[in-house]
TrEMBL record, chain A:
This is Nucleotide binding protein 2 (MinD homolog, E. coli). Its main location: cytoplasm. Binds 4 [4Fe-4S] clusters per heterotetramer. Contains two stable clusters in the N-termini of NUBP1 and two labile, bridging clusters between subunits of the NUBP1-NUBP2 heterotetramer. It comes from Myripristis murdjan (pinecone soldierfish). Belongs to the Mrp/NBP35 ATP-binding proteins family. NUBP2/CFD1 subfamily. Keywords: 4Fe-4S, ATP-binding, Cytoplasm, Iron, Iron-sulfur, Metal-binding, Nucleotide-binding. Gene3D superfamilies: P-loop containing nucleotide triphosphate hydrolases. Transmembrane segments: none annotated. One of its GO terms (cellular component) is centriole. It comes from the Eukaryota.
UniProtKB/TrEMBL annotation, chain B:
The keyword Nucleotide-binding applies. It comes from Myripristis murdjan. GO terms for biological process: iron-sulfur cluster assembly. This is Nucleotide binding protein 1 (MinD homolog, E. coli). GO terms for molecular function: 4 iron, 4 sulfur cluster binding; ATP binding; ATP-dependent FeS chaperone activity; metal ion binding.
């Protein structure tokens, strides 16, 4: 694309990356729920999904697979609602067949991420959330490099309480330090499971590991989100959990994290 | 295949890439002329070397999933434990998750270092007949991050295959990161002069996971990697107090069962969610020893049994074809 799209991020107030060294800890789920919570708080939100081999966001927000249109400024993002309060861009929208594998090595991924950063006409946004694949490799370096010209507010790190996960997130913290990326805080996800039949709490993936990691590394602890079958069911069906279950502890956890996030963005 | 010399600039496209010697990053690189000449694009001689090196390995199995966190590493480690419980078998695990190596912790080898021997790097041993290699053994602290682009990761995988002193092995199990990118392409290409038995695909029951796993299956088909079968992990949770089952990761689209019947793949089995699996992983112990009679252990054993049947069946057809058709 050869438009003059230098300024596609000019009206984006805040850019936040959602990272984890570990796979499957809920990066995409937390990204989705934070976006919904921020939208319910009246904000205009965008999600840029740079997980090129395993894009989850289109399904989690049940937008289907619409064609992406072009305008003078570049790609028009896909909106979840008529008010255009939640905008998305994902490689999921660019594939002809949803089962097709994107078998790309680093340089090709880097090139597409460059386009995603510069060529999406986001318009005015309060917050742009960037959902990432696990690790500290091509995608992460590419997105940071391309965002250099703009201000990145920082990163939210997601982990489950298990040592297998916090161990990988420690490495991600080093990545943030080395690349000069501010850590906005750590979210402990899948923390404790309350049996819906007898309300007995079982710590399937342990408990407290995310909070301990925050203490150990001197990072802000944003809160823990329980393992909640209603949340995984909402995510599966692409329903708005924030709207459907306003009285659940999971709802309170997510909204409190989104408030803390907003405060820290506005304070900076 | 992409490879990066030590003196290459940061954005080196890899000596075997289309852009070798021609990309902007190549300006000023001492290897630019050589790369631009095309000489570096010949098949990597390492493939043949690896073929020779691994000719003493009977079975090679990859553990794959398009989705993160579904239990690839847990399965790889426990498959290895199960196979190595026969003291007459030599088993090894190779962890090619370069940015997020979990195998050292899950197998109780945190803090171990690799040693240099006459014939290369020696792996770290869990038991006399269970060897492990991971980038985790090359890092000096638990905070060390491996911030590498694809070509450097590929170089590491090549070294793991060519320069590790694997010795005689009955089974080499390869644990992979999620996705269909550099690591996956590299392992398949570097092993192309050897026989790979196939891939075990791990998934969880939800569509969010299956949609990525279908891509991984496409990948296997594209690179002609046989699929041994699919394992559904984290399928259902039985409350230890009231014994009711909760579907924490609900199979809204029919789970692995439906996917396997749609794609005509064997379903090797289902493993329930069990907090004791997570705990054993964190503590680096085999779950089989911790809770030998749990449903999860039984599920694992039955999967390993089926799996071994498929592998041996394979060897038999391999070795007998000549006799019967000859
Ligand atoms: N708090 C929770 N309660 C119940 N289910 C959850 C919770 N968080 C995430 N999940 C489920 O766990 C699975 C993995 O989550 P998700 O896909 O968001 O992880 P990820 O970190 O983005 O994974 P990947 O590394 O593959 O990108 C999903 O099916 C999701 O619905
Ligand atoms: N059946 C199970 N019951 C309970 N916990 C499990 C089960 N299987 C795996 N786990 C736990 O789930 C987490 C993810 O497992 P694991 O690390 O093996 O996944 P992975 O697919 O290798 O992840 P990655 O994509 O990051 O490499 C680990 O903390 C592990 O201990
Ligand atoms: Mg994700
Ligand atoms: Mg793993
Ligand atoms: Zn119960």
């Amino acid at each position: 694309m050869e438009q003059n799209n230098e300024d596609n991020l000019a009206q984006v107030q805040h850019v936040v990356l959602v990272l984890s060294g570990k796979g499957g800890v809920g990066k995409s789920t937390i990204t989705t729920e934070l976006a919904l919570a921020l939208r319910h708080a009246g904000k205009k939100v965008g999600i840029l999904d740079i997980d090129l081999c395993g894009p989850s966001i289109p399904r989690m927000l049940s937008v289907g697979r619409p064609d992406v249109h072009q305008c003078d400024l570049g790609w028009v993002p896909v909106y979840t609602d008529a008010e255009k309060s939640l905008a998305l861009m994902s490689i999921g929208f660019l594939l002809d067949d949803p089962d097709d594998a994107v078998v790309w090595r680093g340089p090709k991924k880097t090139a597409l991420i460059g386009q995603f950063v510069s060529d999406v006409a986001w318009g005015e946004l309060d917050v742009l959330l960037v959902d990432t694949p696990p690790g500290t490799s091509d995608e992460h370096l590419a997105v940071l490099e391309n965002l250099k010209k703009h201000k990145v507010d920082g990163a939210i790190l997601v982990t489950t309480p298990q040592a297998v996960s916090t161990g990988d997130v420690r490495r991600e913290i080093t990545f943030c330090k080395k690349t000069g990326l501010r850590i906005l805080g750590i979210v402990e996800n899948m923390s404790g499971f309350a049996c819906p039949h007898c309300s007995e709490c079982t710590n399937i993936f342990s408990k407290g590991g995310g909070e301990d990691l925050a203490k150990l590394t001197g990072s802000v602890f944003l809160g823990s989100v329980p393992l909640d079958p209603l949340l995984s069911a909402s995510i599966e069906e692409g329903k708005d959990f924030i709207q459907s279950f306003p009285h659940s502890p999971t709802f309170s956890a997510i909204t409190s994290i989104s408030h803390t996030l907003l405060n820290s963005l506005q304070a900076a | 295949m992409a490879d990066v010399p030590d003196n290459a600039p940061e954005h080196c496209p890899g000596t075997q890439s289309e852009k070798a010697g021609k990309s902007t990053a190549c300006q000023g690189c001492p290897n630019q002329t050589l790369c631009a000449s095309g000489a570096t694009k010949a098949p990597d001689p390492a493939i043949a070397e690896i073929g020779v090196k691994l000719s003493t390995v009977k079975h090679k199995i990859l553990v794959l999933s398009g989705k993160g966190g579904v239990g690839k590493s847990t399965f790889s480690a426990h498959l290895a434990h199960a196979l190595a419980s026969d003291i007459n078998k030599e088993v090894a695990v190779l962890d090619i998750d370069i940015c997020g190596p979990s195998i050292p912790r899950i197998m109780g080898l945190e803090g171990e270092q690799v040693h240099q021997s006459g014939s290369g790097w020696s792996p770290v041993y869990v038991e006399d007949n269970l060897a492990v290699m991971s980038i985790g053994f090359l890092l000096s602290s638990p905070d060390d991050a491996v911030i590498w682009r694809g070509p450097k990761k590929n170089g590491m995988i090549k070294q793991f295959l060519r320069d590790v002193d694997w010795g005689q092995l009955d089974y080499l199990i390869v644990d992979t990161p999620p996705g269909t990118s550099d690591e996956h392409l590299s392992i398949v290409q570097y092993l192309s002069a050897t026989h790979i038995d196939g891939a075990v695909i791990i998934t969880t029951p939800q569509e969010v996971s299956l949609q990525d796993v279908r891509k991984e299956i496409r990948f296997c088909q594209k690179v002609k990697l046989p699929i041994i079968g699919v394992v559904e992990n984290m399928s259902g949770f039985v409350c230890p107090k009231c014994k009711n089952t909760s579907q924490i990761f609900p199979a809204t689209s029919g789970g692995a069962e439906r996917m396997c019947s749609d794609l005509n793949l064997p379903l090797l089995g289902k493993i329930p969610l069990d907090p004791r699996i997570g705990r054993s992983c964190d503590e680096g112990r085999s779950f089989f020893n911790e809770v030998p009679d749990s449903p999860a252990t039984k599920a694992y054993h039955s999967i390993v049994q089926k799996h071994m049947c498929m592998c041996t069946k394979h060897t038999h057809t391999d070795t007998h074809t000549h006799e019967y058709t000859g």
